[in-house]
Design a protein that fits this description.
- Helices cover 44% and strands 18% of the residues.
- By secondary structure, it is of the alpha+beta class.
- The protein folds into two domains: 24-181, Jelly Rolls (Sandwich), CATH 2.60.120; 185-292, Arc Repressor Mutant, subunit A (Orthogonal Bundle).
- The strands form two sheets. Strands 1-8-3-6-9-10 form a six-stranded antiparallel sheet. Strands 2-7-4-5 form a four-stranded antiparallel sheet, with no helix packed on it.
- Helix 5 runs parallel beside helix 8 (233-251), helix 8 (233-251) crosses helix 11 and helix 9 (256-262) packs across helix 10.
- The relative contact order is 0.12.
- Residues 294-307 have low confidence and may be disordered.
């Protein structure tokens, strides 16, 4: 008997594609739920976290095989790779915030109390005051994503941080209660692998070293990564190194050689070949192109654009 695979979307209903490092998107919940007759079928997102604000209404929430009835006002967090779906009642309204995993990691760098927000899914009831705050910040964020006024990037990031703090505090209030949804064994293994990658990607250790640290076989880790993230462990490692290289090329004045050694490469030539193989351009070409591109720091007029 054949098994239909769980679909992986960019945003729901959209074909998978590479996630921009700073992708940030906000939309009203009924933008996709109403055309789908309020049923969002089980699916996942490889590199996108989501926060759902349910202002009113609710419905059945399905995450990693667990079904839970949720009534607004409430917050729901869905980590990247988590399989999830919804059956909303027709009166349900709210917002869906989608954040690239790389963007969230960058945003909360230096705020350790927010870094673990997406370790697992959370279902968090809200009081009316918190609901009003979250709705106001979502409205502010939508505005900032829709124009390119001075400081719109900073304002959008501030709104996301406020929402993240609200989620963290709501979770803290319910600590000790059964608010979490356990991840599947494969998802849990990939989450632990990602955490180790974040700590050690600069060392350029082989996948076998990570598998040993996780008390897993290399084949099991490879299977879990392919199932959950649709990428091999080595590809996840390479993607993280490329992300850091891009940041350093764009936002620092370090030389190519200094970046090479900071990322654990033995020779600048090896780093340049690696970067070109992953991106299609050399490190120096990327730095010149991105720093001279007038669109690099400008948002699109679409609400789904980066801030």
């Amino acid at each position: 008997m054949s098994v239909t695979p769980i679909p992986s979307f960019y945003l729901y209903g959209e074909a998978p594609r590479a996630v921009d490092d700073s992708f940030l998107h906000l939309e009203q919940l009924d933008d996709r739920s109403r055309p789908s007759e309020w049923t969002i079928r089980a699916h996942s997102h490889a590199d996108l976290h989501q926060i759902f604000l349910i202002e009113r209404g609710g419905g059945s929430v399905h995450i990693e095989g667990e079904n839970t009835l949720v009534k607004g006002p409430a917050l729901i967090t869905v980590p990247a790779t988590a399989v999830h779906g919804f059956d909303w009642t027709e009166e349900t309204s709210g917002w869906v915030l989608t954040i690239a995993t790389a963007f969230y990691e960058h945003l909360v760098h230096g705020h350790p109390d927010l870094t673990n927000l997406f370790e697992r899914s959370l279902l968090l009831p809200l009081d009316q005051s918190s609901r009003n705050l979250a709705a106001a910040w979502a409205s502010d964020l939508l505005k900032e994503l829709g124009w390119s006024a001075t400081g719109h990037r900073a304002a959008a990031e501030a709104s996301v941080l406020r929402i993240a703090v609200l989620v963290a505090r709501a979770a803290e209030e319910l600590r000790g209660k059964q608010i979490g949804i356990a991840a599947s064994p494969a998802a849990a293994l990939v989450a632990r692998f990602r955490a180790l990658v974040e700590e050690g990607f600069r060392s350029r250790q082989p996948v076998t070293a990570y598998a040993n640290a996780l008390a897993s076989s290399t084949s099991s880790l490879r299977s879990a990564c392919q199932t959950i993230a649709a990428r091999s462990p080595s590809k996840i490692l390479d993607d993280r190194a490329v992300l850091e290289a891009k940041r350093m090329l764009l936002y620092s004045n370090l030389s190519i050689s200094e970046i090479c050694f900071a990322l654990g490469f033995a020779e600048p030539a090896n780093f340049s070949r690696f970067f070109a193989r992953q991106t299609g351009v050399s490190p120096s070409e990327y730095r010149v192109r991105e720093r001279s591109d007038p669109q690099t720091d400008k948002g699109s007029s679409e609400a789904r654009s980066t801030p």
